[in-house]
Task: inverse folding
């Protein structure tokens, strides 16, 4: 939801062409990474912190 509008803005409005599209893709992937990192941390840290009692 973030990458496509930025890609269109960069490629059309600022006349960057394909570089703008790839930059928009990179921005979208970065935002997804930032949004998913806390979830990954929340799901994995408790499993690593407590030892198995098997």
Result:
């Amino acid at each position: 939801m973030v990458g496509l509008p930025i890609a269109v803005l960069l490629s059309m409005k600022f006349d960057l062409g394909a570089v703008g599209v790839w930059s928009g893709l990179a921005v979208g992937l970065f935002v997804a990474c930032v949004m998913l990192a806390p979830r990954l941390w929340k799901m994995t840290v408790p499993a690593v912190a407590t030892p198995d009692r098997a």
User: Anything to note?
Assistant: The chain has two helices and no strands. Residues 3-47 form one domain.
